[in-house]
Predict the 3D structure of the following.
Amino acid sequence: MIIQERLTRKTYFEYGVGKLEALCHAAGMTAKTPQILEMFQSLTSPWSNKTIENYPLWLSDIADDYTPFEFSVAFEGNQPELRILFEAQGNSPNLESYWQAGLQINQLLVDVFKVNLERFYAVEDIFYPKNSEAKFVLWHSVCLWAEREPKFKLYLNPQIQGKSQAGAVIKETLIRLGFTSAWSTLAEISAQRELGKDEFCYFSLDLSHGQDARVKIYLRHYDATPEYLEKVLSIARNYVPGDATEFCQAMVEEVHLFSAKPIISAFAFVTGDDVTPSSGTLHLPIAHYAPNDAIVRDRLHNYFTKHNLPLSSYNSIIEAFATRPLEEGSGIHQYTSLRRENQEQRITLYLAVEAHKVNPPQDAGATKIMKTPSPLEEIVLHYEHNSVTNHPFLQRLQEEQVNPPHLWILLANVQKGIVENFARRLASVIARIDDEKIRCILTKQLNDELGDGDFSRTHRKLFNKLMTAITTWQPTIITEATFAPGKELSQYMEEVYSDPNPYIGLGAAIIMEIRGKQFDICVGKEFRRTKVELSSCEWLTMHEELELGHADESLTLARLIPDSNEMIEAVQRGADSTNTALTNFLNGVYQLCLIS
């Protein structure tokens, strides 16, 4: 991932308004442009006046690079629909602050645009933030047309009480809003496959007064096939057999299984019919399934031409929006979606503004979809889907008031168990791995760990700096037992990374990157609840970003491992035993902090 360099840093508004103005002109909304830009400023003030930093304090889930707003364009007929999705930014990087910021936007929409919030008030208490692991609480969007008044929508998080409660949240919400039969229809989808493969991820409300005001329920589908997506979408009234398969094949080459990033389906219900969704929409995260944006453009050209969609309109919009050559990055086209509207295809492009970073072009091999996941791909996907943050200690850490001494104990043991010798241990595995492609990926990770050749930037040095910054968090009483979990983990790490079979160490390295990403994001949220200066916590902010890329590389490594039972068994043994060691480590920290 490439962090964008700017000689003169812009504010979010300055950066966003340039993109939005270009879209307005390209979409034929020139006459409305001043009104739209004024609306954008009103909806995003005052936070949009902040200067864009390379790495934000709040990791907004709206875009892959955490930018807190996104533009999208829907193509249906000759007149595009332009939309803005945004997350109101709180004063502090925590869910309660962001909830309050979202409520302020609600009031602005009532006062200025006379929206209808009756249905939101009916379910507001259900979505009040109670799970600090949740990725968002409240988003808003506005739909814009050249000759129609704007319409507004808000998005709520079904996982706000925890992933395991998302179904119950959706059920209670639908009942309160009068869609008593809708739940049984949706429950059938979420229960068709093994637990965790299909999860409720968003709930939205149209903020209008008419009978056609929708509620929409979104599901995230892990490892879905086109055949399965056909089955999912078949419950909607607008379903046309074969649409999902054709769209998937047009957008992604050799598509058999969507494992890089899950596809999302969305189902809309309107008052008067709570049994059958009026529409179903397929949202495909195309940025994760194409080497670069130029290839996405070419695929869209073919699809638009085949279905007589307004290709010239798309060309005008993408040429106006893109401020870099399309082949030099992957991510402007963040999602593409398909739904039927009056029996005609309606394609929507979700365009990332790339305010924080530009993802480099991907290797074509990394975006190739396998027909069925290998045993090692399965284990990577398993640990991705079953986060370490579900451990009782990390759950308590997030649910209760921030506890600096507990954070200090946790990080002091991480330092002892992992950080002090991580580079040396990884280098040992690299030296003994006989596959050059695997060595290349691990060597890149080692180079990151060693500060790209700058000793002062090595991760061990930066971690020491972090520990110095939080010295005041150190508990009053420190004994040898305080560091027991870290010492035990260090002993295990020494054994597994130096095992005579280097593929056992490779399995450990794969799981360490996946768990590292999950752990860093969790701890980052805790740090942002404290008053510590993040400028002194560079290890954490840098790791939050690097681990995203390293964890993504775990799936690539799994696919490169030679297809032999001996190799597979060794990697799997190293991965599973490392995960057990990390669990035991957290058990030990839990004992120290909350039981002793």
